[in-house]
Design the sequence.
């Protein structure tokens, strides 16, 4: 069905190749899917190195330069005006952009979805030929993209230098330098610096006579602890080094080592024989080596995030993180590593968002700046397992205040929460349909109110309360005073201790979801609605496992482990008799997470609904196997909490 | 049919109104940025200029979200009217009207389409008034959505927030005049959807101008002087 608006768009497109080759129906189909945006002089549509968008562009009015940033500065490669098609790399190669598009005169830009055009490219031989011929000969009409295209090809050839996330598929290539520059603590700063300069390295490890590491001296230490303070370079290195050093052993495996560096923001990680500082130094990894080989490494992304308060910039980095995520998932990088990295990235975004809104509110509420508070993430982000930007669940907890400050605090934290949520929305996170967000006054409360909430849920476990419990119990302090969150946790355990029967209610709730396989050992699919005949991987398979893990961990009074597969790991320790089953369950959860995230990335949605028919045979089997621990666990819980008896 | 069933039908009939009102009960945070806002740009063609007597011949609209005109959301509807084919119809070229829909069907589609978006239009008050007349029997006197008139926005941006209206030549702010000034190609055929599309392009440019003047969130955009 076409209308006047679609027809107008079509009339414009028809004037320019390759759209002029389209039949009437094809043209309407393309026109119907266009998005129109307006950019002003000086703005940038896409940047060199950014992931290809799902659109390519045709300029309606204005002038855009395609420029290349090289060592010689910016060079203009092409000038586009009305009717020029650009950004076609998204269509042809799905590779990162090779040029930056800069708006020179205010421009109206039509964006055409690649997936709509791909079909046409397949079916309409003239259009295909147009692109193909252009590709080969460097013709004029879409000259700008062809130059990009040819470049893309040459780039592909030496693509080994592409995104060396490949480092993870072949860990033997990790460059751990075994020749470590070292000196004794009595060495003068100056001679240590000379050793570094001669060796062209950015660090030196200070060791005692047994070769055990005492500290490390880096370029940064020389800058901030020697020169900036005006300390004499004749002093011994022990006065300027960073100590104690964080150490690991080489056998820890690359992802562990790298994660340590990310978590502690280390530029150099010292390796010793047994991983403690009480053994000799045997190697060092510097982030510089890693940076050089990686385009989209977690450290680069986090570093980028920490250095910007520009929301647009943050969004771009988070989008890049998704590219990295896909790479990790497809290459079977361990889920623990993937989840930790993505959590760290999400956390940094939240912290930056807090900083942004705190700064905005400071002039208006100077008296609130020092109030202690804590930003809580809940649900999947609280469990450190949010890979995609599915709905956010968060809240704010602040200290109890004297009466006269209360009104002001309510106002301040309400605005703070609202500010953070807006930034997160702008960074591409979805809002929580249940409104469990820090912008909702109900979930921005002082500590005593939070205690009352939990006491109430535990004392009156209505179905609604139990649903809240399943979201709120997985809270995690992302920023602010963690002590407040810990106090709340203590309170919760106290309350559960007083009312053990609460766990039985929780257990009943955990069994609410039927096992995912039907009577004939086939998937239980949705019976109605828009997801009919699809399998709801979240509520049928993942939710039961999260619920069961939470319940069992709570029953052991374990605090501080939020992650579902780490909870199962912990349960293995606590109940050796069931260790086998728990470890199966943990693995199953990892498989489900990976599948859901890949499905979501592929379809650009939450990945929650999977069409079993679209899965390959192998995938189907893998998925089915992942279900087996669920029903066994449910059986155990049923017996342990005497639910058959309880239901009566 | 028993009375019970009769009542039930009415319940179902009104569900779409209830949904619409519920969706609009949540206020939009003032600090929300343009990129996160959802606008519906709309226009109508009517049988005349008297909201009390005349009715809607056609309705056209398109949405703007993420600061982009979303062509896939464009619609053009022709509701059935009591006096369609009246005097003004031929002027607008609506002699043969395709695919007419019943008045109730139109309202159903309209409310679910508008949802809780911000309503935008040129000289929008008139269009809304005439739609509200149709909605009155369903219990909606006035649209609960935020409303933004491109006419007022353009005046505000060009003359400042405290402009004295009596000194402004309103002819300079007709849709045609504004399109000319902002470099938007017009079309001599006036249709609801066509004008909605022009208004959407104008609005996109006005929003961009807003940003340059430091107006960048919902609260500032809606500020009434």
Sequence:
């Amino acid at each position: 069905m076409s209308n006047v608006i679609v027809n107008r768009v079509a009339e414009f497109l028809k004037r320019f190749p390759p759209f002029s080759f389209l039949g009437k129906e094809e043209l309407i189909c393309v026109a119907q899917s266009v998005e129109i945006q307006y950019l002003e002089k000086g703005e940038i549509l896409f940047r060199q190195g950014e992931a290809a968008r799902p659109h390519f562009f045709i300029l309606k009015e204005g002038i855009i330069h395609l420029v290349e940033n090289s060592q010689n500065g910016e060079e203009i490669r092409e000038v586009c005006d009305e009717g020029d098609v650009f950004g076609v790399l998204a269509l042809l190669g799905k590779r990162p952009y090779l040029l930056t598009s800069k708006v020179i005169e205010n421009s109206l830009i039509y964006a055409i979805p690649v997936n709509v055009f791909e079909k046409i490219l397949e079916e309409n031989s003239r259009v295909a030929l147009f692109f193909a011929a252009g590709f080969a000969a460097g013709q004029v009409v879409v000259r700008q993209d062809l130059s990009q295209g040819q470049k893309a090809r040459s780039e592909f050839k030496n693509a080994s230098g592409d995104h060396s996330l490949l480092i993870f598929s072949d860990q033997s290539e990790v460059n751990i330098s075994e020749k470590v520059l070292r000196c004794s603590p009595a060495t003068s700063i100056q001679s240590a610096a000379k050793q570094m300069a001669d060796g062209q390295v950015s660090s030196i490890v200070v060791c005692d006579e047994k070769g055990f590491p005492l500290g490390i001296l880096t370029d940064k230490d020389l800058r901030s602890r020697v020169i900036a303070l005006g300390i004499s370079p004749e002093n011994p290195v022990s006065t300027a080094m960073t100590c104690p050093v964080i150490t690991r052993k080489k056998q820890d495996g690359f992802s562990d080592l790298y994660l340590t560096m990310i978590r502690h923001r280390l530029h150099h990680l010292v390796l010793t024989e047994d991983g403690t500082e009480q053994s000799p130094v045997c190697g060092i990894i510097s982030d510089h080596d890693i940076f050089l080989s990686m385009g989209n490494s977690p450290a680069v992304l986090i570093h980028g995030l920490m250095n910007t308060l520009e929301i647009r910039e943050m969004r771009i980095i988070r989008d890049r993180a998704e590219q990295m995520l896909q790479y990790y998932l497809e290459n079977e990088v361990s889920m623990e590593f993937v989840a930790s990295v993505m959590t760290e990235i999400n956390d940094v975004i939240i912290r930056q968002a807090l900083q942004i809104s705190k700064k905005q509110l400071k002039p208006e509420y100077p008296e609130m700046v020092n109030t202690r508070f804590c930003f809580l993430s809940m649900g999947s982000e609280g469990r450190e397992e949010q890979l995609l930007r599915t709905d956010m669940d968060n809240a704010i907890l602040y200290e109890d205040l004297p009466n006269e400050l209360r009104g002001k605090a309510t106002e301040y934290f309400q605005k703070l929460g609202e500010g953070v949520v807006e930034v997160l929305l702008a960074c591409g996170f979805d809002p929580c349909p249940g409104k469990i967000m820090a912008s909702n006054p109900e979930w921005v409360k002082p500590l005593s109110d939070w205690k009352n909430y939990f006491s109430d849920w535990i004392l009156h476990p209505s179905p609604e309360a139990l649903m809240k419990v399943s979201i709120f119990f997985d809270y995690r302090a992302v920023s602010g005073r963690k002590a407040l969150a810990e106090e709340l946790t203590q309170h919760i355990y106290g309350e559960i201790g007083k009312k053990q029967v609460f766990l039985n209610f929780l257990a009943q709730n955990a069994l609410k979801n039927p096992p995912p396989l039907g009577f004939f050992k086939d998937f239980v699919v949705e019976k109605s609605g828009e997801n009919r005949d699809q399998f709801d991987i979240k509520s049928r398979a993942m939710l039961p496992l999260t619920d069961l893990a939470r319940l069992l961990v709570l029953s052991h009074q374990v605090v501080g482990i939020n992650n579902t597969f780490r909870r199962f790991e912990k349960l293995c320790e606590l109940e050796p008799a069931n260790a086998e089953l728990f470890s199966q369950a943990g693995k199953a959860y990892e498989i489900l997470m990976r599948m859901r995230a890949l499905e979501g990335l592929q379809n650009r949605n939450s990945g929650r609904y999977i069409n079993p028919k679209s899965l390959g045979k192998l995938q189907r089997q893998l998925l089915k196997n992942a279900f087996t621990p669920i029903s066994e666990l449910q059986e155990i819980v049923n017996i342990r909490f005497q639910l058959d008896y309880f239901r009566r | 049919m028993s009375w019970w069933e009769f009542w039930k039908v009415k319940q179902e009939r009104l569900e779409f109104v209830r949904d619409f009102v519920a969706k609009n009960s949540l206020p939009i945070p003032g600090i929300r940025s343009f990129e996160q806002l959802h606008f519906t740009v709309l226009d109508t063609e009517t049988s005349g200029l008297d909201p009390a007597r005349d009715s809607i011949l056609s309705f056209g609209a398109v949405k703007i979200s993420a600061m982009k005109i979303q062509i896939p959301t464009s619609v053009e509807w022709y509701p059935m009217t009591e006096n369609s084919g009246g005097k003004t119809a031929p002027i607008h070229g609506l002699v043969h009207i395709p695919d007419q829909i019943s008045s109730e069907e139109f309202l159903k589609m309209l409310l679910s389409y508008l949802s809780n978006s911000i309503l935008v239009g040129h000289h929008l008050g008139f269009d809304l008034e005439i739609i509200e007349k149709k909605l009155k029997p369903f219990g909606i006197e006035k649209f609960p959505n935020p409303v933004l008139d491109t006419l007022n926005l353009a005046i505000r941006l060009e003359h400042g927030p405290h402009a004295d209206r009596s000194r402004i030549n309103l002819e300079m702010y007709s849709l045609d005049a504004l399109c000319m000034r902002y470099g938007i190609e017009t079309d001599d055929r006036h249709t609801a959807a066509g004008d909605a599309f022009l208004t959407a392009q104008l609005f996109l440019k006005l929003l961009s101008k807003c940003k340059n003047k430091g107006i960048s969130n919902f609260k500032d955009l809606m500020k009434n002087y």
